[in-house]
Amino acid sequence: MLWSIIATGTLALRNDMGAVVLIWFPIGIAVAAFHSISQRHWPKLIAVLFIAHVLTIGVYSGDIARTIAYATSNIMEAAVCAVINVRVLGSRTAVPRRLRHVIGLFGAAAASCLVGAIIAAPFESQIGSVNFARWFMSGMLSILIVTPLSLKLRAVVKRTLSGKRFILDRELVLALAACAALAIIALQAERVTLMPLLIAAMVAMAVRYGHSAIAMTMLTYTAVAMVFSIGGDSPAPFLKADIPQATQVLQSWMLTLLATALPVSAVLLKRDEMQAELVHANADLHDNLMLLNLAEQLTGLGRWRLDLVTREQHWSKRMYRLCNMPVDLPSDPGDVRSYLPEDGEGLFSQYRLHKKTRDPYSFDYIIPLDNGAERVLRLSVLNEFDDDGRRIAIFVVAMDVTEQIEREQALDFERGQAVRSAAEAHKLANTDSLTGLLNRRSTFARLDAMLDVAQSCNSPLSAIMFDIDHFKNVNDTYGHQTGDAVIRQIAELARKQARQGDLVGRIGGEEFVWLLPQLDVAHARKLAERLRQAVEVGVQGSSLPKVTISVGLAHYRWGDSQSELLERADRALYEAKKGGRNTVRRAA
User: Fold this and answer.
1) Is residue 431 within 8 Å of residue 495, measured between CB atoms?
2) Cα–Cα distance between 468 and 547 in angstroms, integer?
3) What per-residue confidence (pLDDT) applies to 297?
4) Burial 51-81 (b: 16+ CB within 10 A, else e)
5) Is the predicted pLDDT of residue 439 greater than 80, yes or no?
6) How far apart are CA 444 and CA 351, in angstroms?
7) What is the pLDDT of residue 127?
């Protein structure tokens, strides 16, 4: 629909109002359409676009052969561009963030427009080199300008429809208005060229507002030029040239402008990513420094440094205390292995294991105390290297984390207890206590979610509603305990028949619902029949009375609400009851 509207308007501007169409807007809309839907639906899109082309262009052309040729040309152009774009960007929803992306998108636009122009050329009586170039560049400009704007507009509309408030950037609107005013002046000034000002404005818009502002600015320039051309005038009055030549010069200038601004935008996007990473890293560094300062104030840190060249070492008094060593030892106590657990083998083995590690590393070290308890030290280690890559020193900071680890262990235990309690409470709130199936409330909630998926993805969904035939007679004859056992047995049979991803819930006394996503109605009917037969046969060796079930089946129709789908399944269940029970009926 949008393509037809834009195409009709563009043709009206050209044919009825005499305007010069610098950009063939519909091709940009078509490429955006390919980017907007899954690739598996592209064949359907091609068929719909072909019909729209024939109906829209045929009104103005009147020549069926030319109309079909133009339709084929435009659709091939859009399809080729979309395929190459996906290969360049990695996915149909990605945006250009690197210079190679920008080059690839330019190449995709050029290749696809060349394909479209070659297909249509034999059917254009006055093609010529000038018209061919104008045709080619109008398509490229549309792909590079209209396509990103269409995708941006689509995203804004989707956010607005989802309930998010749309906020108009008034500053951007004013900036675009200023660009339009500048274009009006530049395109008319004859004595002095002001076109460099338009380039400067374009770069400024890219720097200030990002990638999408480039397309907006170019569209603004295009609109001004096309307004000038209404009535058969030149789109660039400042050029002393006929209309075809002026059009070609203006289109070439616009492509040059895009080739200048888009790489700048890609560089700015990369800069923003790096800036965000730097801000995040600085925030982490700040947090680490804050934690270190707090640790020094509250617990105290021990320090130790070993010079591997001179074998000199330095121990802080706090480090002696943490390692349960005499505090009257000198700062360089020499060999301290006799003071350490297992002669320090566990400690020095870590230093040997990380002898080539350049980044800081840490590990926990357990120190036995005189009272039989243990102290846990967290050692943070940094190796120092010389210019030749040889490790020349080891610097260690130690912190007592014994209480922290004990708190973490206690917290983990309490968290586990809380998780188990929450899981049990969740299970009780969402499952039927008699059968273990989902209860009525949870079943309906899950059905709503399945309906959302079915509607958004256009995927099948079936609902099977069944209940136990003559269940009151079972209760009256055998008692309620036996009746409950029968209900549990039916629930277990239904659970075994269900596929992975299906949902079986108990929504009433002897009434159940079985939801089957991603399954067409024919296969759903087979599963429903299989469940009926399983109940009829019963469980071998069971002492429970034999029962049967009646089954109603309904298939999701686009737009169905929960109540509409279940109401049709319930009516089918009623027909099964009415038809003699122990049977399956499908809703009309």
Assistant:
1) no
2) 7
3) 54
4) ebbbebbbeebeeeebbbbbbbbbbbbbbbb
5) yes
6) 60
7) 54
Q: Residue 20's CB: how many other CB atoms inside 10 A?
A: 24
What's the DSSP call for residue 374? E
Q: What are phi and psi of 275, to 5 degrees?
A: -65, -40
Handedness of CA 565, 569, 570, 575 (dihedral sign): positive
Rg over CA atoms, the chain = 37
Q: What is the pLDDT of residue 492?
A: 93
Is the pLDDT at 126 greater than 70? The verdict is no
- Strand, helix or coil for residue 240: coil
Residue-range domain boundaries for the chain: 2-274, 302-405, 431-586
Q: On the CB side of 240, how many CA atoms lie within 13 Å of its CA?
A: 3
CA distance linking residue 74 with residue 85, whole number of Å: 16
564 close to 532: Cβ distance less than 8 angstroms: no
Q: Across the chain, which distance is largest between two alpha carbons, in Å?
A: 107
Cα 231 to chain center, whole Å? 47
- 114: tokens are 């060349």
How much is the average pLDDT of 262-275? 67
Q: Are 159 and 152 in contact (CB under 8 A)?
A: no
In whole angstroms, give the CA distance from residue 35 to residue 82: 7
Q: What is the pLDDT of residue 489?
A: 93
CA distance 341 to 330: 20
Q: Which CATH number fits domain 431-586: 3.30.70.270, 3.40.350.10, 3.30.559.10, 3.40.50.2300?
A: 3.30.70.270
Output the CATH code of domain 302-405.
3.30.450.20
Distance of alpha carbon 150 from the chain centroid: 19
Q: What average pLDDT does this structure show over 463-476? A: 93
Q: Is the pLDDT of residue 292 over 90?
A: no
Query: What pairs with residue 505 in β-bridges?
Result: 438, 513
Q: Is the pLDDT of residue 49 over 80?
A: yes
At residue 171 the predicted structure's pLDDT band, cuts being 50, 70 and 90, is: confident
pLDDT at 451: 92
Q: Which residue do the tokens 């400067």 mark? A: 200
The strands making up 361-368's β-sheet, listed across from edge to edge, are: 313-315, 302-307, 391-400, 374-385, 361-368
Cα dist from 480 to 118, 434, 539, 543, 544, whole Å = 81, 12, 20, 15, 12
* Side-chain half-sphere CA neighbours of 214 within 13 A: 28
Give pairs for 417-421: CB < 8 Å, separation 24+: none
d(CA 551, CA 569): 9
Catalytic residues: 510
What digits encode the pLDDT tens for the residues 129-146?
666 777 778 888 888 888
The token duo for 125 is 């009586």
